[in-house]
Specification:
Helices cover about 75% and strands about 0% of the residues. It is elongated. It is built from 15 helices and no strands. With about 325 residues, it is mostly helical.
Length: about 325
């Protein structure tokens, strides 16, 4: 690659992100009444009907143009509510496409449609609020409750210090390694049953985390209706956290489950730590409460399924 080629590619990617942001901002600003928002929501449902996340993502990945050109082409081909619906649907498809450009599309979406109430312009903020309410009215009771809890958490005060802590929790709990490190320290320090806890946790935490992060998430992506992805975009869930269930939470609760079987009196402490991880995933806008609940349940179930056959060999 010639000198300067990397910087040219980075500049082009940033320009593409800005182009997607501009189109999204303009289209949200055009939604100025509840009636218009309801029309857009109805058209989104029709555009997204009959396909899954994986199908629409694969289709977007096969396009010969990048996300910015794809979104601009869709915007030029439609007008009114049809245009807004088409732009949001195409943006969601670009975000879940398995391409190197998907991250820039996700960044553009999060800039215009972040968790909480922020938006680039007052008009876009108004349109986003109207469209969000229209989407919520079209959800089933349980999905609506799940989303409203997510919104309530994300509308809490987010002081810089709390954001730093939440991001740090995300970083150190990725993959469940922090549980293994803690138990390894307990083992080296000579804590009673520390050796047993570590030998149980190593295969169970790794196994539970791996199962959730790969086959289970991949299976759900293949099956999840694409309309759920578009709804998540409008609601403000962070695009890089759309995978179901929450892998961080699964890792945390698998570790808490194993530790509690060894030290049952400390179970409230272990599960309190795991619950903090789950809450942080909602707080940063990465997962719905339902994702966290599913991750916690799967983490414990898979951990116990692995623990039972190996416990007789661990001393």
């Amino acid at each position: 690659m010639e000198p300067g080629a990397d910087s040219d590619l980075d500049r082009e990617a940033e320009q593409g992100r800005a182009r997607v942001e501009r189109v999204l901002t303009e289209e949200l600003g055009a939604v100025d009444t509840p009636e218009a928002a309801n029309q857009v929501a109805g058209r989104i449902e029709r555009l997204a009907a009959g396909t899954t996340e994986a199908e629409r993502g694969d289709r977007a990945a096969q396009q010969p143009v990048g996300p910015a050109t794809a979104v601009e082409t869709v915007a030029a081909a439609h007008e009114g509510p049809d245009c807004t619906a088409a732009v949001l649907t195409e943006t969601a498809a670009q975000v879940v496409a398995q391409t190197t450009d998907a991250q820039k599309a996700a960044q553009a979406a999060e800039s215009v449609l972040p968790p909480g109430e922020r938006a680039p312009t007052p008009q876009a903020q108004r349109g986003r609020r109207l469209l969000r309410e229209a989407m919520l009215r079209r959800m089933g009771p349980l999905q609506r409750l799940d989303t409203r809890i997510f919104l309530a958490v994300n509308q809490l005060p987010h002081p810089p210090g709390a954001n730093v802590v939440a991001d740090l929790i995300t970083l150190v709990t990725t993959g469940g390694w922090i549980w293994l490190l803690g138990l390894a320290v307990a083992r080296v320090a000579g804590v009673e049953h520390g050796r047993v806890a570590f030998r149980l946790a190593a295969p169970t935490v790794i196994g539970a985390t791996s199962a959730v992060e790969w086959p289970i998430k991949a299976l759900f992506r293949r099956q999840r209706p694409f309309i759920d992805v578009v709804r998540a975009l409008v609601i403000g869930r962070r695009p890089d956290g759309w995978s179901f269930p929450s892998g961080h939470t699964a890792a945390a609760f698998s570790g808490a489950w194993i530790a509690s079987t060894v030290w049952p009196r400390r179970a409230p402490l272990f599960f309190g730590l795991a619950a903090t991880v789950g809450f942080s995933r909602i707080y940063v806008g990465a997962h719905y409460p339902g994702d966290v609940l599913a991750g916690a349940t799967l983490g414990m179930v898979i951990a116990e399924a692995i623990r039972r056959p190996i416990r007789r060999f661990v001393h």
